[in-house]
Amino acid sequence: MVKEVYFFTEMGYTAYPQDEARRRGFNNLMFPNEHFSPERAQQLYGMYFDELQYCTESGFDGVMINEHHNNPLSMMPSVNVIGAVLARTTRKGRIVFLGNVLPIHDNPLRVAEEVAMIDILSGGRVVCGFVRGLGQESIATNANPIYNRERFDEAHNVIIKAWTTPGPFRWEGRHYEYRVVNPWVRPLQKPHPPIWIPGVVSPESVRWAAEHRYPYVALAPPLHVTDEIYDLYDEVAAQTGFTPTCDQRGYVIRVSVADTDEKAYEEGRHFFWQLGTSFGVAPRHWLQPPGYVSRAATQSRREQARVGSANVTPGGPSLSYEEAHATYQIVSGNPGTVIKKLQRIIDVVDPGSMIFWGREGLMSHEVAVRGIDLMTREVIPAIKAYQPDREKGRQRRAVEAAAAR
Amino acid sequence: MTTAEAACAEDLVEVAGVRIQLRRGGSGAPLLILHSELGVPGWLRAYEQLARHFTVYVPSLPGFGQSARPDWIVSVRDLAAWVTWFVRDLKLSLPLPAIGFSLGGWVAAEIATMNAQVFTKMVLVGAAGLPPAEGHVWDYFIHSHQEALTQAFYDPATAPEYAQYFGRAWRPEDERQAEQNREMAARLLWKPYMRSHTLAALLRGVATPTLVIWGREDAIIPLDACQRYQHAIPGATAKVLERCGHLPEMEQPSAFVKMVLDFLAPGT
After folding, report:
1. In angstroms, rounded to a whole number, what is the distance separating the alpha carbons of residues B167 and A297?
2. How far apart are CA B222 and CA A84, in angstroms?
3. pLDDT at B1
4. Which of B15, B100, B95 is nearest to B62 (CA)?
5. Which CATH superfamily is domain B5-264 in?
6. pLDDT of B93-116, one tens digit each?
7. Mutate to test the interface with A, among B139, B147, B190, B191 (most CBs of A within 10 A)
8. Which of B266, B211, B242, B261 has the alpha carbon at shortest distance from B46?
9. Residue A404 pLDDT > 90, yes or no?
């Protein structure tokens, strides 16, 4: 049952020339940053921060923030800086970091210190997610992608130990080594802020999250892939010795709500503002630098490509806007329509928390605010009151999947 | 011996603790070939020509081709140590001559810095390891494998072995193999990229007679690095092939082999 609903925007830098990106065939990593205007960014940051503030005051349970590098997709090159600002400008609501990109850090204790500090500044409102980053980010930060997963794992271990074990102690690992681990500032929440693991499909990440009993947050995948994700999660949880509840399931979904279905459908196109995609266009060897993607994940991605995904987009859009609706990678409509569509997802996934990716691209501030109002007044109360029927939802998915084949 | 491919024996063998893919052909004294970061495409014309004078050994180095990838080999010096075990365990008569291509050239150079008893002579071809004084080594890791192959040739259109090995439609297993080679290359070469901070100093102590060969139009490692190698290794000579890129053995096989034989086996 949905207990909490958060709001998310990538904080896109919308002012870059799309024609230039189209001509080059990519819009990140090596897309020239001469196309960035700090003055324009200042206006955009102002608008985005105002909207996030408004969300926390009008009925969302908090906001989600993230981090990307070399990418007009997102003006959040440091999730901790965004989080620190929100910790002091907002008064309530959780700040959900999804998350710190662990493998790119040569000093993960800096992450431990910053998150601890923000947790205190916010009065214990931090949810601390950890991610591996996009493939391009391994290149942008020159962190060898061969060791991405090893570094993720070890950085996580040293951060958790720094938060839970009294210092000073030594750390001598494969990728990190410290003579003295003894960060002075430690988190307010005990033993530490909740850890969430977001992801798209990588089965290793799902397995890793379940082994650590961390909630797994699906990042707006095609609905039928979520069966695969959470079945695996449940299986590993059983081996680990616990039975997952909705508290272990989070779900990010693109939501476009307006006064009419037609208006919401048109505004929803803004979610595919990056050359027809949500995450931007890059060649495969940037998205998947050497060793970044495991063989198992390649299989899973192939399956995702078969159904069409709005997320993974080497070389261009892999699905149309219409297909994104059909596969529940976006829901749009008036509040009543959106509630019904979200209930379909809730029946399949039964998430404890949902994250509405609620504004994107060139959507105007007024439209975004109207959407936020409709979400907080009508959509959120309705889905929090909804009792999911997971059995029914899964049966219906199975019938639809069979029909699609 | 109707085709070049037929002239080599190819086995999976356990050597020096690693199960590796080993091609060998010809007869006579042994000659060791250390391949580039692109792996071994096959039994090349150049190998076949050299096999008329030597028993030519072409191992796929650990992590490349069908060779296993042990966890402990994470640097070029680790790889160099393994290569010295390889020639020992195969019981090749030592010292022996060696040719190293790009990554393999760096491996050979590292060995020569540590032990003058392994190689009689060495030929370094478009060798990695020393940064050019000007410009950069072309970055494999922000380009695709296909782009790398094109970049590695001066003129892919006229190189018969480009068409034979790379210019055809790729099968899924070719893609997988290329990706696996790329992963091993990233492990060894990601950072510092294709260079060592200590090699230039270490090369001053090399006593192995050395020939450095470079393609003038090498667009992966600029010709400038050729001079750096020549000046770093006492007594080294350098030869440059015209209209030739990063893979002289594939682009100019006959001219390349003649240069090598003039150095390794003068008078033949």
Report:
1. 29
2. 47
3. 39
4. B15
5. Alpha/Beta hydrolase fold, catalytic domain (3.40.50.1820)
6. 999 999 999 999 999 999 999 999
7. B190
8. B261
9. no
